[in-house]
Amino acid sequence: xxxxxxxxxxxxxxxxxxxxxxxxxxxxxxxxxxxxxxxxxxxxxxxxxxxxxxxxxxxxxxxxxxxxxxxxxxxxxxxxxxxxxxxxxxxxxxxxxxxxxxxxxxxxxxxxxxxxxxxxxxxxxxxxxxxxxxxxxxxxxxxxxxxxxxxxxxxxxxxxxxxxxxxxxxxxxxxxxxxxxxxxxxxxxxxxxxxxxxxxxxxxxxxxxxxxxxxxxxxxxxxxxxxxxxxxxxxxxxxxxxxxxxxxxxxxxxxxxxxxxxxxxxxxxxxxxxxxxxxxxxxxxxxxxxxxxxxxxxxxxxxxxxxxxxxxxxxxxxx
Length: 319
Description:
Residues 295-319 are annotated as: Disordered. With 319 residues, this protein is of the alpha+beta class.
């Protein structure tokens, strides 16, 4: 199917992209980055914008900057470039691991971290990791610059906190999942139940766990693929914080994963029913917490980079 006719403008810088969004503020405008979400929607007729603003050549938003206290990722950084960043793995492990699960080689070479977050697909891998990383998303528009907490960014049904005319420019990730803070150590992880054909997450769980003196001092757990929008699992976090950093505590906390998650309202499609997703959620919460805890305590090493996977067998989200 051919998409309806639309206008096309190409931006060479973030400032030019913002100016184009302002110029066409009275039109239906879409931003084109990697295009793996937008182009299929255009072809299927699910999207029919008046104008496409192509930001694929905006190189000033492609970077991973390991600054003091946080790692900043430019919104147009490709998945491939992001997961090759050692500081991202050591300082924001859950987020790096989630990004490494996206797509095959071709998708990772073209798709962008910011595009994934802005698309806000409930089955995408990075959003849950952004939540447990307590990321800050930076947006710029003609009215200036805004910082948005990840907890406030995802609105469900593909909606985000971005306003008309705004461009997502940066994702800032505070140190976690591998960094020491005094006697406290932290570990992060992302695990998923993958649909075998599409690579989408039927269930994806991101976790960050901090340990001091044999006890869990902080636990953050979020899920994607089950709820729309992705969300933190507060009952799991509350059940683990203050408890011993051991397998029994993890199992008890993971057993509360489905509390407050309504199977009737869960994501349900041709890939899997909502009831199935909720049913397998506790297992994947336990696996994510076990991995994060092992990395926090030193029982397992924090990865220094992405695993070596084939383009066919990597089991990633095929966007």
